[in-house]
Write a structure and sequence with these properties.
The protein has 456 residues and is mainly β. The protein has two domains: 16-199, Jelly Rolls (Sandwich); 284-455, Porin. It is 5% helix and 43% strand. The chain starts with a helix and ends with a strand.
Length: 456
């Protein structure tokens, strides 16, 4: 009986310890903390543990049921509860709390079976889901919610809706927002009786807008699809071997066990001055740009191993399917004036069509008539290309700024037919140079594009 009691106690303790693990950190960039320690990849996130990011910090948490919880810069948040009931999924209980800043939540497998027990709190609002991917930005007085897929129900803390509650607050003072209402946000202000629908950008650029370049988890994989911004500033330091003087000629040792023969005193030989050895240091190679698909798509295997490539090269950017790197070598320095034009030499692209309810299909597409123009004096670039899909041909455009180290980037700012672009220049072909880009953007209300390209 005593042994049975001990076994039951240990089983309960093990179950509680598992329930306390809300998820795992799968990517960290910049200043970020989990509790009072720096956040690190692979670390478990426990229920109630405070997650904090600095001005350049990002944290991606893969929840226990393969959902995602993403913290952007200058954010404080925690996973208050993440209790998954494997035997009765409807009893699963999940609660997030965003204290300040910007966070994105993508529902996991268990949450989809227990939406009635999901709650996302801010200082002024309670958010429930309809099987969803949504973004929230908040301070102590105002919260804004935007939906990428599915829908949310939002209520201010009034009447029977209290912060300590569980599940969505639904009633006459709650409002719903779906992904079909693209370009609109739900805004809750302290003291307001009900959330208000506002146009995105009506009060300046919206941080609540879901970003296409943030991660979407791979089925059954712990690898994140990392956002472009979070992957910045990960430069590698190239090590340079120091050339040393040539080693001297080895001196023969006497055979053990035998007495050394006496040797006559050598006749002094005049020495001649010897020039020091000439050390030839090979010139540094030009840095090359490398891009490719790091995720499987439509049963096509990945072209690049993300972990290996990141160890060997400088990671410039990642997005939905593609990664962009720069190899070690001679630093690229952007000219102070002049311009250069490139044409499209190689590319790969996919169109993702959304059908609602979280259902989407991915099809391959092709690029043609591409042009990329860099104005070094203005530190700017423009690009255009034709995207041929299964149904039509779409003109895509992009523009942005160029940095002194050859990197360039541009934001679509929500415009249809414009691209979020990350790229890099190289002197690999010294006379003409090369460039590479990865990009994503929205074609229309239902379709978005993701791809990469080489320019010469």
């Amino acid at each position: 009986m005593h042994k049975l009691l001990i076994t039951a106690t240990l089983a309960c303790a093990a179950q509680f310890a598992h329930a306390a693990e809300a998820g795992k950190i799968i990517f960290v960039a910049g200043a970020a903390k989990a509790g009072d320690r720096p956040a690190v990849e692979g670390a478990q996130v426990e229920e109630g543990q405070m997650l904090t990011t600095g001005a350049d910090g990002y944290i991606y948490v893969k929840t226990a049921d393969n959902g995602l919880f993403i913290l952007r810069p200058q954010t404080q948040a925690r996973i208050v509860t993440y209790r998954i009931d494997q035997r009765n999924p409807a009893n699963t209980k999940v609660k997030f709390e965003l204290i300040s800043g910007t966070a994105r939540s993508r529902s996991g497998d268990a949450v989809k079976h227990a939406r009635q027990n999901f709650r996302f709190n801010t200082p002024v609002a309670a958010i429930g889901v309809r099987g969803t991917d949504f973004t929230v930005v908040t301070d102590s007085d105002t919260s804004r919610v935007s939906v990428f897929s599915g829908g949310v129900v939002v209520s201010g803390f009034a009447g029977g809706c209290r912060p300590e509650g569980a599940g969505p607050c639904e009633g006459s003072l709650s409002r719903e927002l779906s992904a079909a209402q693209r370009g609109q946000l739900l805004q809750v202000t302290r003291g307001q009786t009900a959330p208000q629908v506002v146009e995105a950008g009506s009060e300046g650029p919206s941080q609540a807008a879901p970003r296409l370049d943030e991660p979407l988890s791979k089925n059954g994989s712990g690898q994140p699809n990392v956002s472009v911004e979070a992957a910045k500033n990960l430069g590698l330091v190239a090590a340079i071997d120091k050339a040393g003087p040539p080693s001297g000629t080895p001196v023969p040792m006497p055979n053990p066990g035998t007495a050394p023969n006496p040797t006559p005193t050598p006749t002094p030989v005049p020495t001649l001055p010897v020039d020091p050895p000439v050390v030839v240091v090979p010139p540094q190679l030009e840095r090359r740009v490398v891009w490719g698909r790091w995720q499987e798509v439509n049963l096509l295997p990945a072209q690049i191993d993300y972990a290996t490539a990141r160890r060997e090269n400088e990671l410039i950017a990642l997005n939905g399917y593609f990664a962009l790197y720069r190899t070690p070598g001679k630093e690229y320095v952007t000219p102070n004036n002049g311009s250069i034009g490139f044409t499209l030499r190689g590319s790969e692209a996919y169109v993702i069509t959304e059908y609602g309810g979280g259902i989407s299909r991915t099809h391959s597409a092709s690029l043609s008539n591409g042009a990329l123009n860099i104005d070094f004096g203005k530190r700017s670039f423009e690009t255009s290309m034709d995207l041929t899909t299964q149904d039509d041909v779409v003109k895509l455009r992009g523009e942005g700024t160029v940095r002194g180290d050859g990197r360039f980037s541009g934001d679509a700012n929500g415009r249809m037919g414009y691209l979020n672009i990350q790229g890099v220049l190289s002197n690999e072909r010294v006379t003409t140079g090369t460039a590479a880009t990865i990009f994503d953007g929205r074609i229309d209300e239902r379709r978005r594009v993701n791809g990469g390209a080489t320019w010469r």
